[in-house]
Amino acid sequence: MNTFSLNGREATFTPGQSILDAARENGVEIPTLCFLKQNAPTGACRVCLVEVAGARSLMASCSTPVTRGMEVLTESDRVHGARKLVVELLLSSGHHDCLVCEANGNCRLQDLAYRYGIRELKFSRSEEQYTVEDQNPFIVRDFSKCILCGRCVQACNEIVVNRAISLGYRGAKSKVVTGGDMPYHESECVMCGQCVQVCPVGALTEKKAAGLGRAWETEKIRTTCPYCGVGCQQLLHVRNGRITKVTGVEEAEPNHGRLCVKGRFGYDFIYSKERLTTPLIREGEGFREASWDEALDLVADRLKEIIAKHGPDSVAGVSCARSINEDSYQMQKLFRAVFKTNNIDHCART
Amino acid sequence: MTNSFAHFAKAKMMFVIGSNMTEAHPVASTFVKEAVTGGAQLIVVDPRRTPLCDFARIHAPIRVGSDIAFLNGLMNVLISEDLYDKEYVNSCTTGFDELKEKVMEYPPERAAEISGISADLIREIARTLASVKPAMLMYTLGITEHTCGVNNVLSCANLQMLLGNVGFECGGVNPLRGQNNVQGACDMGALPNVFPGYQRVDNPQAREKFEKAWGVEGLPAKPGLMIPQMMDGLVDGKVKAFYVFGENLANTEPDIRHVEHCLESAEFLVCQDIFPTETTRFAHVILPAAAWSENDGTFSSSERRVNRVRTASAAPGAAMPNWWIFRELARRFGHSWNSDSAQEIWDNELSKLAPSMAGIKYVRLEGDGLQWPVPTEDSCGTTYLHSDGCFTCGLGVLSPVDWTPPAEVPDREYPFVLSTGRRLYHYHTRTQTGRCEGLNDLLGEETADISPDDADRLNIRHGEMVRVRSRRGAVNVRANVTEQVPSGMVWMAFHFREACANWITNPAFDPVTQTAEYKACAVGIDKL
Ligand code: SF4
Ligand code: SF4
Ligand code: SF4
Ligand code: FES
After folding, report:
1. What pLDDT was estimated at residue A350?
2. What value does the mean pLDDT take over residues B8-28?
3. Hey, what CATH topology would domain B416-527 get?
4. What is the pTM (predicted TM-score) of this model?
5. Which residues face B199 on adjacent strands?
6. Which residues form the pocket of ligand 1, taking CB atoms under 6 Å from any ligand atom?
7. Judging by DSSP bridges, how do beta strands B268-273 and B241-245 pair with one another?
């Protein structure tokens, strides 16, 4: 039996499993910042430190495998002290003004600062100045909030494999860069926004969502992307009946949290002022507004007339390959059962 | 798709033909790229050097429309060199002798002459493909949008059956569907020859079943018209009334001038849409519909997965769900339908009528949905079809096919091949993406993509305006000089009205499916 001791209790693990995964499976949560599920751990942030009996220093649980009989403490005073220090250092490494940060309420650093009871900044703030990059239409990059966890780099290179960003420069100048350190829109970046989805702090945020609602104010509704046939699962963040942003549903088939630029940023057409909002009937060269009753009566009367005069096959219809199944079902039923024609098709061929 | 997206990331060998996945199906491409970084091999067959080629072990830039010759060449090598899966072919397929006879007419040298890929590379590709099992084949519209589209598809299937790759995880023949619910529209019977669940209208038992279910008599037995035939019918007077739900035919169909003439000829045109479009201009009545995220329902994706779609916002003004509009029309013909929600329609009608979806009910769709066939309520669905080569309809049929050239090929006056498709930042005619803040900033106009060689020869600079003309029409458009395109080709999309490729594309159709040859017509380019 593969067992180890987790906070004094006996727990099971599978060989090769990290302490982090084994703990999670046994119902013990260990905080993480840089760890990105299903990708190789980078061990960059040290927030996931745990105490292992016999080991001189604390170990990063995301990158340390469990061994049989290992004794692990995830919540000892020593662990707490170390995690608190890590968070304090990260907080002082940048300009973390939660009050004005778009990620407020959706920030792991903020959560950890609260959890480890940080009341004031122990270290003086880094003086490094970065300009905020927001020239592209979708993604705001503010490196004064970047904790260099590397998740965005991993997501871009290993998850969506767009290979647009990497960790550049050395030492204190370290920074996430595109090729040639160009702004996103002038680089290889394809604006999929996966880096934004994985950023644990407010360094990468969505421009279109800015100011539209805090994380705790939005309802999350799962749905399916309206564009291509992959069928990516989306989480609509909705406040007061309006979508504020869209993220990919983690651990869902088929996309496992991924979205492309259309699926992530192409949602606001439904709020366009140009939407059709009332039935319209042709009048001369233009159209006039009509009620549903008037418009539907007219359609029914004209179709009846035409069917009576020229037979059912003089009517033809094209259904919509973008709309829901039930709409297509109803339309073909209308044509077959009511009009009595099989002249119903859709653009499967385009 | 016979298989699932989940198989992409796990595949060991992938053969991608006629699919610019990174732009048209970006998330699907992430799994292909992931597989490659994990050690899988990728072969890309495409006239253009698409972004996926950066990940490919071999890129075969075949000439536009030479797919069958190329694939027959591969199969010729597989058979001559004894590399095909004999056991699979013997026990799971029929028609091998006929196929063999046909592909023997395509030795690599002949296939090379037609496709522009050297005989040696054809041999290498065949050997590489045969070296790993199973291999997964993916294709998109580069295969279907040809006058020989059906034969192209048969060829892909032949190749995969010959290799014994159909019926296994990480194998199969996998068309990526363009629209979110084109799979579903087919499944629902929005096709002229089948009821929901692919039950044929010319089958008396099927008609009887639907007559009983719908409480009607005399359902028509004769298959109906396909879109291009409807369009022609508008002009020759066979079709008087035309009901267009959601499609922007005036931009999406080949030869816009002809299409608009057809629409103009309609005695009565009803358009049901969420926006005014180029097509609604011709309508007599326009009905405003609720959009994505304004009502509940389901989409069916390429992998046959039925997924839930949920309401987030209210539809604007008087816009109503489409199913409601159809019901209200039926009522005016004296038919009273129970339908009062998408769920009611699915649970109480569709799932009872379509055996392959009988086990799908809304309560079962809360998580990741279900992949049909789901014959019963305890079935968990089907991640791949034809399990272990047991074809649902008996034996897999190997169908010999001959190569045929595109309907229009370059000549002196029109020396280039125009091929068309989609770009990353927009979707089809932009009725939606064009109205999303930001996407127009990333791509604001159409371009004609041409090779550096041709640009040099014609003295055209990158970004300069040119005129692209065909026998149908001409557009003025900015030249985009790019290594992606081989010389002799112009590549365009149909996202922008003014320079829409469909002013010039050729309305020539596959005789069976009536799919238009968007991928090939002859054009000339003039410097302006
Ligand atoms: S938006 Fe996508 S492509 Fe661009 S840097 Fe982020 S993850 Fe990479
Ligand atoms: S931008 Fe965000 S995800 Fe990327 S390294 Fe910085 S904090 Fe981590
Ligand atoms: S997010 Fe992109 S890849 Fe996924 S379904 Fe939507 S359009 Fe397709
Ligand atoms: S989560 Fe383990 S080191 Fe960051």
Report:
1. 46
2. 96
3. Barwin-like endoglucanases (2.40.40)
4. 0.95
5. B195
6. A 155-156, 160, 162, 164-165, 184, 189-195
7. parallel
User: Collapsing DSSP states into helix, strand and coil, what is residue A297?
Assistant: helix
Is the interface score ipTM higher than 0.90?
A: yes
Instruction: Tell me yes or no: is domain A3-75 CATH 3.90.1640.10.
Output: no
* Domain definitions of chain A by residue range: 3-75, 212-275, 283-349
Q: What is the pLDDT of residues A189-198, one digit of tens each?
A: 999 999 999 9
Ligand 4 atom with the shortest distance to the CA of A35: 1
Pairing label, strands B199-200, B194-195: antiparallel
Looking at domain A212-275, which of 2.40.50.690, 2.20.25.90, 3.30.565.10, 3.10.560.10 is its CATH number? 2.20.25.90
Report, as an integer, the average pLDDT of B438-449.
Answer: 94
Q: Which ligand is nearest to the CA of A61?
A: 4
Evaluate whether A209 touches A268 at the Cβ level (below 8 Å). Answer: no
Tell me: the pLDDT tens digits for B202-211?
999 999 999 9
Instruction: Using alpha carbons, select from B376, B336, B432, B278 the residue that is nearest to residue A225.
Output: B432
Mutate to test the interface with B, among A190, A285, A318 (most CBs of B within 10 A): A318
**Residue B518, token pair as written in the block:** 């968007």
Quickly count: other Cβ atoms within 10 Å of residue A211's Cβ: 7
Looking up tokens 């906070």, which residue turns up?
A7
Residue A246 belongs to what H/E stretch?
A: strand A242-248
Q: Is the pLDDT of residue A125 over 80?
A: no
B218-249 pLDDT, tens digit each:
999 999 999 999 999 999 999 999 999 999 99
Q: Choose the CATH number for B5-176 among 1.10.1760.20, 3.40.50.1000, 3.40.228.10, 3.40.1130.10.
A: 3.40.228.10
Pick B182-377's CATH classification: 3.40.50.12780, 3.10.450.50, 3.30.70.980, 3.40.50.740. Answer: 3.40.50.740
* Percentage of chain A exceeding pLDDT 70: 98
Of A161, A260, A349, nearest to B513 by CB-CB distance is A349
Domain ranges of chain B: 5-176, 182-377, 416-527
The residue nearest atom 2 of ligand 1, judged by CA position, is A192
**Cis previous bond, A65, omega within 30:** no
Nearest CA in chain A to B309: A223
Tell me whether the CATH fold assigned to B182-377 matches the one assigned to B416-527: no
Residue A327: helix, strand or coil by DSSP? helix
Q: What is the pLDDT of residue A98?
A: 87
